[in-house]
Amino acid sequence: MEHVLFFDGNTKRISWVIQTDDSIIEQKREHAEIYLDKVTNLQSKYIGLHIGLFWGIGTFIIKNYDIIKIATDEKLILDHLSLNQKNNDVFIEKRTFFIRQFIKQRKLKIQYEFITSEKNLASKIK
Questions:
Q1: What is the number of alpha carbons within 13 Å of residue 30 lying toward its C-beta?
Q2: What's the Rg (C-alpha) of the chain?
Q3: Residue 71 and residue 114: Cα distance in Å, rounded?
Q4: What pTM value is reported for the model?
Q5: How many domains does the chain have?
Q6: Cβ proximity of 14 and 26 under 8 Å
Q7: Torsion sign across C-alpha atoms 111, 119, 18, 101
Q8: What CATH number does the domain containing 46 carry?
Q9: Is the dihedral of CA 111, 12, 94, 63 positive or negative?
Q10: Distance between CA atoms of 126 and 124, rounded to whole angstroms?
Q11: For 25-73, what is each residue's pLDDT tens digit?
């Protein structure tokens, strides 16, 4: 099955949306105390992607071998993930490790898509 995963975040909260063939599931969370006002907007977006992917797997929306289109409005994230680049931010690299671990363990087929901020469904629910 194919899903589109949208995600967003700022210093206060994260959000993600999983769009399937017949539904759109929206979620948002306040940052845990350890991250609240202590992470950058970019770091927060990686948290949003990490938690959105983890939540999608945990709720059985995302299953092994699914096709996941990761839609981002952040060119840095697109380049970092799609081109398998390193990031100098240790926090971002740790999130990336877990994201890639989920992808490998669940044998997900990942596609990346650059979208405009206006098309990012997750940015609308913050």
A1: 5
A2: 13
A3: 6
A4: 0.96
A5: 1
A6: no
A7: positive
A8: 3.30.420.10
A9: negative
A10: 6
A11: 999 999 999 999 999 999 999 999 999 999 999 999 999 999 999 999 9
